[in-house]
Amino acid sequence: MAETLRMVVAVFGNIASVSLYAAPTITFKRVIKKKSTEDFSCIPYIIALLNCLLFTWYGLPVVSNKWENFPLVTVNGVGILFELSYVLIYLWFSSPKGKVKVAMTALPVLTVFCIIAIVSSFAFHDHRHRKLLVGSVGLGVSIAMYSSPLVAMKKVIETKSVEFMPLPLSFCSFLASLLWLTFGLLIRDIFVAGPSVIGTPLGILQLVLHCKYQKRRSTQEPNKQKENTEKVDLEMGNGKELVTS
Fold this sequence. Notes:
Mean pLDDT: 82
Helix content: over 70%
Distance between the termini: 23 Å
Number of domains: 1
Family: Belongs to the SWEET sugar transporter family.
Low-confidence stretches: 229-243
Radius of gyration: 18 Å
Shape: globular
Number of helices: 10
Structural class: mainly alpha
Keywords: Membrane, Repeat, Sugar transport, Transmembrane, Transmembrane helix, Transport
GO molecular function: sugar transmembrane transporter activity
Oligomer: single chain
Transmembrane segments: 6-28, 40-60, 72-93, 105-125, 164-184, 190-209
Membrane topology: Multi-pass membrane protein
Number of strands: 1
């Protein structure tokens, strides 16, 4: 029964997380159409890529005991594909100065992951210490990712309008955080549940702000609302990167 419950929670957590990873595709269609990254930032996606790499590695038998954390591998594997695609699209359509900025940010991030992977594989010879190293770094990266929605929430409070914070994105963020918090508690893994301890309250706060300022949203011009929504999708990192799984 307990195993079935964990599997059900993991499956729904995967679905909610993949929805978050896919959310910025609308914005990147705009980037491709305009052939310009405008004033959007790629940093949230690079951080999200590192997060997915770390937790995919964490879930593999090299770090975890056999396939005890297989759900982390599936969802973060999909996340790697999404986030890497976003970074490559941004790199292709950015200005020469922007390309340099992306390279200077991405290369150190990928170097950090490679170092952690090598150290965890060869410096430690048991799953406990490997999980401690990879999980601790992953936890720190995940917590850093949660600063992205704070930018949107600050904008909502300042403008008293939720046009800067799409409801589907906020709901999926809350749902994914809640599900992975539950999964982490069920398997008693602090590194899986830890990021969602912060993400779940932030998701609730986003929904509260929607309830408070929803009426003002209908007064916004449709075109302006769509433009701002796309911009915030990119600035927030969608997700995704808002999750550890």
